[in-house]
Amino acid sequence: MSQHIKLSILITLLCLAGCQQEKEDLNAYVARVKAQQKSDIPPIPVMKPYQSFEYAAAELKDPFVPTVIDMQEPEPEPIADNGIRPDSNRRSEALENFELAELQFVGTLEQENIWALVRAPDGVIHRVQTGNYMGRNHGKITSISESQMKLKEIVPNGRGGFIDRDTSVSAVEVN
Q: Which of 1, 3, 13, 68 qualifies as a FRET site for 30, CA 20 to 30 Å off?
């Protein structure tokens, strides 16, 4: 053997011999741990035997299958033309650009016949009389009194036609 190998074996043996001599504190610790009372570990719980379950509702309706039966749509009712419709050739008036709820009936004026004073949302007061139009539903003024204006509106009936609807606008108190 070469001298390097002999030297490395000798150094290793000397290191091992030095480590073996100073283990008294380690031996004391191991003896102390072994002397301690061991805690009792509870035993593994007993497993209950498997009980099978028989599904008794197998013949019932499947909850994941849709139950709605497709039915044919009923034939739409023929639309009876009652002759009521807005006049598309009539020139619209200034107050027809607003909803009735936005307009305020603030008073009346009497010159040969009775006029109603109506305030628009922009603050302008308009003078209207029986036969004038206001509101977005083609509301024609049918009568004017000091407390209210009555109108006849032409509104869609939801089936492609129109119907007449009577409505009124009550006077508001001006401060």
A: 13
What's the CA gap between 110 and 163, in Å, rounded?
32
Q: Output the six-digit token pair for 168.
A: 């009124």
Number of H helices, E strands in the chain: 2, 7
Nearest to 129 by CA among 147, 153, 110, 156: 110
Rounded Cα–Cα distance for residues 175 and 171 (Å) = 13
Q: Token match 């001599």: residue?
A: 21
Domains and their CATH numbers in the chain: 94-170 (2.30.30.830)
Rounded Cα–Cα distance for residues 124 and 87 (Å) = 26
pLDDT per residue as tens digits for the range 28-84: 888 888 888 777 888 888 988 988 888 888 788 887 877 777 777 877 776 667 778
Q: What angle do CA 37, 41, 46 make, to 5 degrees?
A: 160
